[in-house]
Design brief:
The chain is an alpha+beta fold and 292 residues long. It has two domains: 2-105, no CATH class; 128-287, DNA integrity scanning protein, DisA, N-terminal domain (YojJ-like (1). The protein has eleven helices and seven strands. A seven-stranded mixed sheet has the order 2-4-3-1-5-6-7, with helices on both faces. 24% of the residues are buried.
Amino acid sequence: MGWIDKAFETLVENFSMYRTMMDFGDVLEILVIASILYYILVWMKNTRAWALLKGLIVIIVFLTIAYFLKMYTILWMAQNVLGFAVTALIVVLQPELRKVLEELGKKNFFSSVFPFDNGHRTEEIFSEKTINEISKACVEMGKAKTGALIVIEQKVSLKDYERTGIDIDGIVSSQLLINIFEHNTPLHDGAVIVRGNRITSATCYLPLSDNLGLSKELGTRHRAAVGISEVTDSLTVIVSEETGKISVAYEGKIIRNLDGEKLRERMQQILNKNGEEKNRGIRKWGRSLAKK
């Protein structure tokens, strides 16, 4: 009946054709499609899309049974609802689809070809002195069990999140960070954003992660740190108010129970990584000009 009949007929015709005319290119195409479907399913498993997929499979099985039993009224209803269902799925899965596109946008393909692709980010990332000041502040706040959330901007701009907070524009120092996060002060709630060697804003709101794999022990502060690391390339340092332990969130992952030395090492690794990527991009751009 209608589109359902055509879909089944097309499926049977394509299966018969590929069974008699399959060559190496077809096998390669099947492998590529299978790989794409596999990674899509792996991504969906940790999101709300997984439950929706199981629901869609039930509906497809039901419609298949209805087709063979010639339940034309049900098939007619399904055909008319299909257009609305697709739109509804896009609306429901909007956060997940946005996250996938952001992940693709965070890849360094264009920056590796054009090293000045992020030309608007000309200022330095953060210096060795800034690393030491942040580490020192976190250790002191950990001893006093003062909660803290420090987001260090890198290539992806955090200006949208800065607008949710209060402007500071001060040089990073351990004393300033400790004063900001001190209990019962106007600025202690929310996140601090660091750009270069300056604190730009405080009391900023961050997106919470919906990663189902995170430990149930983690509270809102840790989930916010993971959330911002999922949508940007920022490095976030967290001090737990309950335990005083220091954690770092980067690229959607969290490393817990760090001391001052390990925190410095981790921040230094990120600094070196970004410096190496930038230098590598400049070298590639120089070689391409030389070849011309």
